[in-house]
Amino acid sequence: MPTMKQRLVSELKEIGITVAYLAVSLSILQTYKSLILLQQGINAFGNGYLFAIGEAIALGKIVALAQKLPFLKACNRHSLAQAVLYQSAVMTMIVAVGEQLEDMLFPKAAKLLAQSGDPMALYVTHLLAGFLIFVFYFTFKGLDESLGPGKLWRLLFGTTDSQQFLS
Predict the structure, then answer these.
(1) Were 56 and a residue from 15, 23, 27, 89 both cysteine, which residue would form a disulfide, CB within 3.0 to 4.6 Å?
(2) pLDDT of residue 148
(3) Region label for 81, one of left (φ > 0), alpha (ψ between -120 and 50) or beta (otherwise)
């Protein structure tokens, strides 16, 4: 049984990896938004990246906490695909709320973004991209749990010797 210190280090490592993944992914989405705003004459890269990092930190904590809640584990007794789709949909809805908060904090950018194209198409595209971010995240996490902690990581990023993977 792991000690309290070992559990804390493990949890912090997991949250750190989650936050880093989300920060990179959300920064890519912010780049997309900022490039659209740049066409309107607004350089929103700085604000966008700061918001992406803040959102990644908040979402990293939410993801870590939500994974322990019964409503996010509702589909865990079903196939991995169903669990991943359900968890991704729930987290995408949480991100959509975060985006609404961002629009309230930066109304000028939100207004110009809406004017730069079809607002519904931009919104749906952004939601779909967010959904795919979570599909990848929860697929990786689910496969890692199914194979045993760390085995998927070693398989993907370690040596290609299958005997080492199976041991």
Answers:
(1) 23
(2) 85
(3) alpha
Cα dihedral 140/146/150/153 (nearest 10)? -40
The average confidence (pLDDT) of the chain is 81
What span, in angstroms and rounded, lies between the C-alpha atoms of 97 and 84? Answer: 20
pTM beyond 0.85, yes or no = no
Q: Report the first-to-last Cα separation within the chain, whole angstroms.
A: 21
pLDDT at 135: 95
CB-count burial class (<10 Å; 0-12, 13-18, 19+) for 2? exposed
CA distance 29 to 26: 5
| 26 vs 149, more confident | 26
The alpha carbon of 24 is separated from its chain's Cα centroid by a whole number of angstroms, namely 9
Of 24, 36, 9, the residue nearest 60 (C-alpha): 24
Q: What angle do CA 60, 65, 70 make, to 5 degrees?
A: 135
Structural domain that includes position 153: 4-166
* H-type alpha helices, 106-161: 107-115, 119-147, 151-157
Q: How many CB atoms lie within 10 A of CB 99?
A: 18
**C-beta separation of 49 from 27 below 8 A:** yes
